Amino acid sequence: MKRRKGREYAFHLLFQHDFTGKKPETKDFAEFWDQKDEDAEGRSFVEDLVCGTLNNLSGIDSAIQKAAEHWVLERMAAVDRNILRLAAYELLYRKDIPSAVTINEAIEIAKKYSTIESASFINGILDRIAKGIKGKKAR
Q1: How crowded is residue 127: how many other Cβ atoms within 10 Å of its Cβ?
Q2: What is the mean pLDDT of the chain?
Q3: How far is the C-alpha of 59 from the C-alpha of 110, rounded, in Å?
């Protein structure tokens, strides 16, 4: 599986969680994968993204809220909010993925599932988060 497809799957699962409030469990992942023909490595990548995002949701939401000047997280479109959460997880907690790759992937997912305006909105917020991380490393 290509990583973009994995990120799209993770986005779908995070979007579902946003509406149900229920964290996916092993059986939920199994049901999800029953409908897909993906390899174990790809499944592991997706499950890490989903679980990592949900396990760090408070810190992720805080970083997004701080970077999203004049926006309240709960008032953002659910699609945009979950793309931001997924990408912010990668930026903040996955040091093996370059920030430029993460931001580009989030923009492409936004173009596919949201609006053109959302893509630039997401780009701006993720860029602020990435610059904040770089600024902390420079200190």
Answers
A1: 15
A2: 94
A3: 22
Q: Six-digit token pair at 119? A: 């893509």
CA–CA distance, 24 with 47 (Å, rounded to integer): 9
pTM of the model: 0.93
135 to 19, 62, 121, 124: CA distances (angstroms): 34, 17, 21, 16
DSSP 9-69: HHHHHHHHHHHH-PPP-HHHHHHHHHT----HHHHHHHHHHHHHHHHTHHHHHHHHHHHST
Q: What are the tens digits of pLDDT across the range 39-90? A: 999 999 999 999 999 999 999 999 999 999 889 999 999 999 999 999 999 9
pLDDT of 130 above 60: yes
CA distance 114 to 43: 24
Question: DSSP secondary-structure letter at 96?
Answer: T
